[in-house]
Amino acid sequence: MSPLIHDGYILAVDSSQTEVSALNGRIVIAWHKDKGLTVSRLNRYDHTLVLRSENPSYEAVTLSAKERWKIVAKVLWWIGSEP
Q1: 8 Å CB contact between 53 and 40
Q2: Fold category of 10-79 in CATH
């Protein structure tokens, strides 16, 4: 399975949409102070939140208070040419 969003694509995001409860299953921009930004799908499993990349080369990240990831925006759409 190839990535959904490729390097060089342009993303349109809405930084006012950061409420985790409304973003289940959506593609989001998440930020970590040491790891930077990531574009991933946010999934909720019971009381566990997981950031899962569409690219299988990247491991999923389980969100916790210890990890300190912050959802900064919802991805609205993207555009680009597949390589």
Answers
A1: yes
A2: Umud Fragment, subunit A (2.10.109)
d(CA 24, CA 62): 14
Under DSSP, the state recorded for 56 is T
19-51: b (≥16 Cβ within 10 Å) or e: eeeebeeebbbbeeeeeeeebbbbeeeeeebeb
Render pLDDT for 14-27 as a digit per residue (tens, 0 to 9): 999 999 999 999 99
End-to-end CA distance of the chain: 14
C-alpha distances out from residue 70 to 11, 54, 78, Å: 18, 19, 21
Q: Give the Cα separation of 51 and 61 in Å (integer).
A: 5
Question: Using one digit for the tens of pLDDT, what is the confidence trace for 36-71?
Answer: 999 999 999 988 999 999 888 889 999 887 778 999
